[in-house]
Specification:
522 residues; alpha/beta; SH3 type barrels; five-stranded antiparallel β-sheet; 10 helices; Agenet_dom_plant; Agenet domain protein; LRR_dom_sf; cyclin; Agenet-like_dom
């Protein structure tokens, strides 16, 4: 099959979010080909510099479709905030106006001119093909030939293509022809995203249990719940998946749902899971009270990647939280908005195989005394964002000799009172002492600003010796695009941090825009 060519000058749509369920696509142009799977692109409508993206982050601009029909529940692309976002139709208001739920936000009203049929670009084809009745004009042969090319592919390729679809879209392919009728029943990857129908999850569970080919393993399952009932359905579905050799589980549980108490033990007793993303998505002051308490020690023998969001940890001993030491295959750990409760004061990340660690906002039981201890001899990447790092002590039981990249940004608690002897600069320098073996260091401007303010009011902070970075190759300061701060002021602080380091590493100052987290990826 002839591959689609992205030549210089080719109009494209670009995704720079790289993996989000609700990623937008922005219009742009191919400037040049950097490698076989990388391209230099220019954004048409965003004030962003030309950037290099990978081939999975671009797709051709779809051909315009003539007058097409929309009904409640249809998936659509919405032109909003200068990009195309996925949504679904919640209400037809008449006169060419539709109420649409966009990217997990509240519903918004759009004219039909701002909408198009939602499609995905997979293996050089738009999937699924547009159903004929949606096209009242523009019935060219290109669409027909594209549909025929897809149907001629072997089953294994079709199943791979269908694995990128949400479950309800995959099931809809059964109407295309007799050949497609039973293909969806053999899918090993299922993704459930909530729709306007309050019974959609119950229907999804019923289809899995009654219609799916029971002889096929279910390797990958993604569930994003927004229903208020169905605890039993969720438990039954997870139990079914684990019985069918589930390896990758991504589950987001809505705050309105109270799962069965044995759901978490069921998941954490799996011997087959290699990837687990578990999010309870709580919010507000009652977040910790409603979030589940994890076991003091986790035992998942095959697990390589673990993402936890809005869960509680309790101390194992002497105020220490140490739940990860028995995950003997763990490579990547992400903690987001998690809580240390009761008498837990020290978060110990202890794991012999861990390579990548990301911490995004951890709440400790004691607001003014908390500590993070690393016991990770094979750690390569460490990211900590949106955290009260100036109120946390970082220590390590090993020298982190394999550390490649560190990304740090944080903020200061307004209730925190610095003493004259210990300021923010001193705290941050103590962090850098622990991380002195790093090769690539990225820090947020908020840290530079806090250090600068500390130097202004606290002369003792200037006396603290910065570390000697023995392997540092580059240091990057990321500042918000609207920050009106001269670069020479940033350089002055950076030079202080690097005064004991030779040779001097590369220093970069980069402006960041709305998508904050992407600038801290390895």
């Amino acid at each position: 099959m002839v591959r689609f060519k992205f030549d210089p000058g080719c109009p494209v749509e670009i995704s720079n979010y790289d993996g989000s369920i609700y990623e937008p696509w922005f219009t742009g142009t191919i400037i040049s080909c950097v490698s076989s799977n990388e391209f230099l692109v220019d954004y048409n409508d965003l004030e962003l510099e030309q950037t290099v993206v990978r081939i999975h982050q671009i797709r051709p601009v779809p051909l315009p479709v003539g007058d097409f029909e929309l009904k409640i529940g249809d998936d659509v692309d919405v032109f909003w905030k200068q990009g195309w976002w996925k949504g679904y139709v919640k209400e037809d208001l008449g006169y060419g106006k539709f109420r649409v739920s966009v990217s997990g936000t509240n519903t918004k009203v759009f004219s039909k001119e701002k909408l198009r049929v939602h499609r995905k670009w997979i293996v050089d084809n738009w999937v699924p093909p547009i159903i004929t009745k949606q096209l009242k004009s523009h019935k060219g042969t290109d669409e027909t030939e594209a549909g025929n090319r897809i149907s001629e592919l072997p089953d294994c390729i079709l199943l791979h293509i269908m694995s990128f679809l949400e479950a309800r879209d995959a099931v809809r392919t059964c109407i295309l022809s007799k050949r497609w009728k039973d293909l969806c029943k053999r899918l090993t990857t299922l993704t459930y995203i909530p729709s306007w129908d309050e019974n959609s999850f119950k229907n999804f569970k019923s289809w899995v249990l009654s219609s799916r080919d029971q002889s096929c393993s279910l390797w990958n399952l993604t569930i994003d719940t927004q229903f208020q009932e169905g605890e039993e359905d969720l438990h039954t579905l997870i139990q079914y998946a684990l019985f069918h050799n589930l390896q990758n589980l991504n589950i987001k549980i809505n705050p309105s749902l109270t799962p069965k108490s044995d759901l978490l033990p069921l998941i954490l007793a799996s011997n087959s899971l290699t990837f687990l993303e578990l999010s309870y998505r709580r919010g507000g002051s009652i977040a910790a009270a409603r979030s589940p308490i994890l076991p003091k020690s986790l035992h998942l023998p095959a697990l390589r990647t673990l993402h936890l969001e809005y869960v509680n940890f309790v101390a194992t001993r002497d105020h220490y939280v140490d739940p990860f030491s028995n995950l003997h295959a763990l490579n990547t750990l992400v903690l987001r908005c998690c809580y240390l409760i009761e008498d837990a004061l020290v978060l110990c990340i202890s794991n012999q195989t861990l390579s990548n660690l990301t911490i995004f906002h951890i709440c400790f039981a004691d607001e003014f005394f908390n500590e993070i201890v690393l016991s990770t001899p094979n750690l390569c990447s460490f990211t900590i964002l949106n955290s009260l790092i100036f109120e946390q002590v970082l220590s390590s039981t090993c020298n982190l000799s394999f550390l490649q990249q560190v990304n740090i940004d944080g903020f200061k608690n307004s209730t925190w009172n610095l003493s004259e002897d210990i300021g923010e600069a001193s705290v941050f320098l103590s962090w850098l002492q622990v991380l002195a073996n790093v090769k690539i260091l990225k820090i947020g401007y908020s840290i530079i600003q806090a250090i600068d303010n500390d130097f202004t009011v606290n002369d003792n902070s200037k006396k603290v010796e910065p570390p000697c970075f023995v392997r540092l190759e580059s240091l990057t300061v990321n500042k918000e695009s609207d920050a009106r701060v001269p670069d020479d002021e940033i350089i002055e602080i950076v030079e202080h941090l690097l005064q004991n380091t030779t040779p001097m590493p590369r220093v970069n100052i980069t402006e960041i825009y709305e998508n904050y987290d992407q600038y801290y990826r390895c």
